[in-house]
């Protein structure tokens, strides 16, 4: 693997990891285009997620400090001398940490049981293209239905936007709601679906505000991506390092870190004044382009 191929894969990973467009699908497409296939290439695509993880840790470091205090220090009685406000924050941090663990468990169990089967049957461009198309269609249908019902009830566009942004804060999330989001996250094991898309939608379904749903998706992504990275590193890491060495891995992770940080900031800002509709159009367009390339044998599915 050349340094520029590592940069391209890192940029694709970082830009798409937290957008509702599926980083796995984009990486599979990019790997096919660059003719980088096999266990080492697949492991590389997973391991450079480390850069995307670091991006979230950096941008949401205050939230992770809060969860660390609540999850580790509070049970040991090391936060008793804190101010009342800080103790209240520790309680909220402990609850959030437990909810993230609960939401992670379904994917952990199902992933371990079916990882090989998923990789054998679904890591091809035809399954990815189908997921892109139907995922995009689902986004657009949801948006159109909301607008239709709003118009029928005499709700203005501004009121609809306010209602979409309204909802419960992250602190209101219950363990049952977290578990529901966790099971919804398992849908994203089909490459092309998008983990961020289904977890954001899951958060909205259980009543979170758009901002809270996005944040929970990012936080849940850290533990999910970290587990996948560690698992794949142990499983195929030696093969990857033997074939590519450390340099491409470091370059790809750095590119993923920088691009993920910019992508997250852009998405948070964009969703404050826009919906997911643009991603629906993008997914459908990408699916149609990819399908055309496949049918014309301009890109290899093997």
UniProtKB/TrEMBL annotation:
Q: Please, which domain of life does this record's source organism belong to?
A: Bacteria
Transmembrane stretches, start-end: 40-61, 96-114, 126-145, 197-226, 246-268, 280-299
What are the protein's UniProt keywords?
Answer: Antibiotic resistance, Cell membrane, Cell shape, Cell wall biogenesis/degradation, Hydrolase, Membrane, Peptidoglycan synthesis, Transmembrane, Transmembrane helix
How is this protein situated with respect to the membrane? Multi-pass membrane protein
Q: What is its main location?
A: membrane
Report the subcellular localization. Cell membrane
Instruction: Kindly state a single biological-process term from the GO annotations of this entry.
Output: peptidoglycan biosynthetic process
List GO molecular-function terms, semicolon-separated: undecaprenyl-diphosphatase activity
Q: Which reaction does it catalyse?
A: di-trans,octa-cis-undecaprenyl diphosphate + H2O = di-trans,octa-cis-undecaprenyl phosphate + phosphate + H(+)
Q: What is its EC number?
A: 3.6.1.27
List other remarks: Bacitracin is thought to be involved in the inhibition of peptidoglycan synthesis by sequestering undecaprenyl diphosphate, thereby reducing the pool of lipid carrier available.
Function recorded in the entry: Catalyzes the dephosphorylation of undecaprenyl diphosphate (UPP). Confers resistance to bacitracin.
Family to which this protein belongs: Belongs to the UppP family.
Provide the protein name: Undecaprenyl-diphosphatase
User: What organism is listed for this UniProt entry?
Assistant: Poriferisphaera corsica
